[in-house]
Fold this sequence. Notes:
By secondary structure, the chain is mainly beta. Helix content is 0%, strand content 45%.
Amino acid sequence: xxxxxxxxxxxxxxxxxxxxxxxxxxxxxxxxxxxxxxxxxxxxxxxxxxxxxxxxxxxxxxxxxxxxxxxxxxxxxxxxxxxxxxxxxxxxxxxxxxxxxxxxxxxxxxxxxxxxxxxxxxxxxxxxxxxxxxxxxxxxxxx
Length: 143
């Protein structure tokens, strides 16, 4: 029995793209959308599929086999990485960050990073890319 989440809810903002073709609520609808989380199952060391896209967010699903490393790369958009199963480490020029069921990792747009799955377990990552600009931190004044 799989304990992986099967659906997430996101607001239906603008057009929806689910790969092929899907019937979706009209733009401007306030109804949430249930998004099927069909995790990649190719068995490749690193595999990725796009799960959902609308005017505000883009959701990708990544599966890394135990011990697999996703080479350094960057997203032009700010992303939030959340683990649905397994654990690993996200490495950037600013340090290494734990990614597991209790730790998500936020990366600003353009941030170079690599991901390493811990040995012995598959790391499933839901990547939520934020299409809007990241909020400005008004609490950091540099004093």
